[in-house]
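User: I've been trying to design a sequence by hand for this structure and keep getting stuck. Would you show me what you'd pick, starting by listing the structure so we're on the same page?

Assistant: Good idea, let's start from the same input. This is the structure you sent:
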């Protein structure tokens, strides 16, 4: 019996000594981190906190200082990760919430930004000056497609879109689109006047994004297309369901598209990976693998893009898509590639320029390798699109 009492006493004494030593380590770490924080030595502060955490010395105060250092050095993804650690222990930390909001806006992650904003008090919300009408952004696009094919006229594309915040966790993006192109074909071409049949398509698109948690979003989209060609009119309805999970440097998304497109049954399964090696938009990659099932026939399509910042307010993005893109759905079902002639390969370059605090200009050029469905010959097409996005 005495032996058991001594054993218990020894264990309790040992635990007390370990706790005391841990508290001393934490006090020393907090003191050192505070000195680095006050000196503005952000890189050294980041290195010190990371080493302390590796050595099992951790606290919300250390995480907050590391998050602030990451934010000031431009690694917004890492900063968000640190602030989220703070909020796990101290969900009422208003400053950590506010900084998490700003960091998410810097990488265009509105869902997570508004999720954090929902926990802020009224005075702080007034300071960050959110749009009183819930408008997030508005966009205009205008493009021309130039086919190297005597039996295809130039194609024209227009889009007007707007993003709305319906609640702190629910957002709605809407777009209205118009595509027109004259199709010339042996047998009904008016060679004298060079008039053909017009392929005209009017479209409406809506996508909802719901923040289930600070880093998990549920996606839902609907796309309606009214297509007229020759004497035929088609009504097409497409839907999308998906989920997105954000991590420190990688964002993962899986979704399924489904519906009827013209006279074909469509299902498309997508897996997408976005990678931010620097934790910001100075360098990023977007990779997407898709399996398109069109009336029972499967096609594999792969899309890859790389973007980077080249000047203070200028970004370049290079993209390529491989595979038969006949009736392919891109950008969460926003763009539907169901033109008369299917695209077999596409690549291009985009330039983004930040004009002031609100306007983002973009100029896109794409080269497409297409196949004439009536003559079974290949031809090239060049596309140019100019757009502007106004962020409120």
């Amino acid at each position: 019996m005495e032996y058991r009492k001594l054993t218990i006493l020894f264990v309790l004494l040992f635990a007390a000594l370990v706790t005391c030593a841990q508290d001393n380590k934490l006090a020393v770490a907090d003191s050192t981190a505070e000195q680095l924080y006050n000196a503005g030595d952000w890189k050294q502060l980041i290195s010190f906190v990371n080493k302390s955490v590796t050595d099992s010395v951790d606290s919300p105060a250390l995480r907050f200082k590391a998050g602030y250092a990451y934010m000031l050095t431009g690694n917004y993804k890492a900063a968000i990760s640190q602030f989220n650690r703070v909020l796990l222990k101290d969900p009422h930390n208003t400053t950590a919430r506010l900084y998490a909001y700003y960091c998410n806006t810097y990488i265009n992650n509105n869902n997570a930004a508004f999720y954090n904003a929902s926990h802020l008090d009224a005075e702080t919300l007034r300071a960050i000056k959110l749009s009183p009408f819930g408008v997030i952004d508005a966009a205009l696009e205008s493009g021309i497609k130039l086919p190297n094919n005597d039996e295809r006229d130039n194609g024209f594309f227009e889009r007007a879109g707007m993003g709305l915040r319906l609640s702190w966790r629910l957002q709605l993006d809407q777009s209205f689109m118009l595509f027109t192109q004259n199709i010339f074909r042996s047998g009904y071409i008016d060679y004298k006047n060079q008039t053909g049949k017009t392929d005209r398509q009017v479209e409406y698109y809506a996508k909802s994004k719901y923040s289930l948690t600070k880093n998990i979003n549920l996606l839902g989209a609907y796309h309606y297309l009214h297509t007229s060609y020759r004497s035929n009119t088609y009504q097409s309805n497409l839907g999308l369901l998906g989920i997105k999970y954000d991590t420190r440097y990688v964002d993962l998304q899986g979704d399924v598209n489904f519906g009827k497109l013209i006279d074909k049954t469509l299902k498309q399964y997508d897996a997408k990976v976005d990678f931010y090696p620097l934790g910001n938009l100075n360098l990023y990659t977007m990779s997407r693998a898709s399996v398109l099932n069109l009336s029972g026939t499967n096609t594999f399509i792969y899309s890859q893009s790389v973007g980077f910042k080249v000047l203070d307010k200028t970004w370049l993005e290079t993209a390529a898509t491989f595979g038969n893109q006949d009736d392919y759905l891109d950008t969460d079902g926003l763009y539907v590639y169901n033109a008369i002639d299917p695209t077999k390969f596409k690549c291009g370059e985009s330039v983004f320029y930040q004009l002031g605090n609100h306007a983002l200009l973009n100029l896109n050029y794409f080269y497409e390798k297409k196949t004439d469905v009536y003559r079974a010959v290949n031809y090239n097409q060049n596309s140019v699109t100019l757009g502007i996005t106004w962020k409120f």
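That's my pick for every position. To get oriented when you compare it with your attempt: The first helix runs from residue 2 to 39. The two ends are 74 Å apart (CA to CA).
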